[in-house]
UniProtKB/TrEMBL annotation:
Belongs to the short-chain dehydrogenases/reductases (SDR) family. Residues 9-189 form the Ketoreductase domain. Pfam families: adh_short. GO terms for cellular component: membrane. The keyword Oxidoreductase applies. One of its GO terms (molecular function) is oxidoreductase activity. InterPro entries: KR_dom (IPR057326), NAD(P)-bd_dom_sf (IPR036291), Sc_DH/Rdtase_CS (IPR020904), SDR_fam (IPR002347). Keywords: Oxidoreductase. This is NADP-dependent 3-hydroxy acid dehydrogenase YdfG. The keyword Oxidoreductase applies.
C-alpha cells in the first residue's frame, strides 16, 4: 500500500474558493501536489487558481448536484497524472436560527450542501480510490459534529451526519487500502459566518449579521493556513479523526466528560472570551 503522505500526490478539494479549502489547495500545491479544485464561487476559485504554481484543474461545481459531481469525477479521472492521493469534501455553509423560527428552505439548503454534498463527493470519487487501492476520503464535519449548540440545529445535524456517514464508511473500507477521515475544525477565521443565512439575531440582541460575523471571527483561534497544516499532518500520521485547533480539543473533551452539561461550560468560556474582546477594543 502506498504511504500515507499526500503531499506530491494529486488531490481533489471542494469549497476551494475560500477559507480552509483554499488553504489546503495552496499548501498541497506548494508541496508539489497537482490539485483539482471545485467551488460554486467562480471568481473566488479563479483567485485560488491564480495563487497556485503547480498543475491545476479548476471546475465550477455545486456539490448539491450529484450528476454533475459524477461528471467532475470522470474529468478528474481523465486528468489524473498519478493515483489520486485524497478527496477533500470540504465545501460548507452555515445557518443561524432557533428551531422555533427556522426557515425550512434555509435548513434544506444547508443539509443539501453540508451533508448531501459530502455524500455526493464520496460516492463519485470512491470508485477511483478503491480501484487504485489507495488514498483518503477526507470529510469535513466540525466541533459542532461533536456537541449540540443553540441556534445551530441544522448545522449540528448535518455535521453529526457527516461524522456518522464517514465512520460507517471507514469500517466498510477495511482492507481496501482506502481510508476515510473525519475532520472536526474548531473556530477557523474564514468567510463562513459572513456567507451564513441569518434572518434575525436569535438571541434577541438586535445584532446585524455583520456584527455577529465579527463576534464569531474575534473568538476563532486558528487561521485557515494553520488548519490546512493540521489536517495535512493528521493525514500523514494516519489519524482517522482530526481535531483542528485548541478549542476543538476542549469541545471533544467536554463532550466525553459531561455529555449532558457541556454547554454550561462552553457558554461560560464564550462569555469570558466576549468580555475579553470588549476589554481589548
Ligand atoms: N470556519 C470555521 O470555524 C469552521 C468550523 C468547523 C467546520 N467548518 C467547515 O469547514 C468547511 C470549510 O468552510 P470554511 O470555514 O473554509 O468556509 P468558507 O465560507 O471560507 O469556505 C466555504 C466554501 O464552500 C463553498 N461552497 C458553498 N456552497 C457550495 C456548493 N453548493 N458547492 C460548492 N462549493 C460551495 C463556498 O463558495 C466557499 O468557497 C465547511 O464544511 C465548514 O462547515 C468551518
Amino acid at each position: 500500500m502506498p504511504g500515507r503522505e499526500v503531499a506530491g500526490r494529486p488531490v481533489m478539494i471542494t469549497g476551494a474558493a475560500s477559507g480552509i479549502g483554499r488553504a489546503l489547495a495552496r499548501r498541497l500545491s506548494g508541496l508539489g501536489s497537482p490539485v483539482a479544485i471545485a467551488d460554486v464561487d467562480a471568481s473566488g476559485l479563479k483567485e485560488t487558481e491564480g495563487s497556485l504554481s503547480g498543475r491545476v484543474l479548476t471546475r465550477v461545481l455545486d456539490v448539491r448536484d450529484a450528476a454533475d459531481v459524477l461528471r467532475f469525477a470522470d474529468e478528474v479521472r481523465e486528468w489524473l497524472p498519478a493515483p489520486l492521493g485524497a478527496v477533500f469534501n470540504n465545501a460548507g455553509v452555515a445557518v443561524t436560527s432557533s428551531v422555533l423560527d427556522a426557515v425550512p428552505e434555509d435548513d434544506q439548503w444547508l443539509w443539501d450542501i453540508n451533508f448531501h454534498g459530502v455524500v455526493n463527493g464520496t460516492r463519485a470519487f470512491l470508485p477511483i480510490l478503491v480501484g487504485q487501492g489507495s488514498g483518503f476520503v477526507v470529510n469535513t464535519s466540525s466541533v459542532f459534529g461533536l456537541v449540540g449548540m443553540p441556534f445551530q440545529s441544522a448545522y449540528c445535524a448535518a455535521k453529526f451526519a457527516v461524522r456518522g456517514f464517514t465512520d460507517s464508511l471507514r469500517q466498510e473500507l477495511r482492507g481496501t487500502g482506502v481510508r476515510a477521515v473525519t475532520v472536526h475544525p474548531g473556530g477557523i477565521t474564514t468567510n463562513i459566518a459572513r456567507n451564513a443565512r441569518i434572518r434575525r439575531d436569535p438571541e434577541g440582541l438586535g445584532r446585524t449579521k455583520e456584527q455577529m460575523a465579527a463576534q464569531f471571527e474575534a473568538i476563532t483561534m486558528t487561521s485557515p493556513d494553520r488548519a490546512a497544516a493540521i489536517i495535512h499532518k493528521g493525514l500523514s500520521r494516519g489519524r482517522s479523526r482530526i481535531l483542528v485547533g485548541p478549542d476543538a480539543y476542549l469541545f471533544d473533551a467536554l463532550a466525553r466528560i459531561t455529555p449532558t452539561h457541556y454547554y454550561e461550560v462552553i457558554s461560560r468560556v464564550q462569555s469570558r472570551l466576549r468580555t475579553q474582546q470588549k476589554a481589548d477594543r
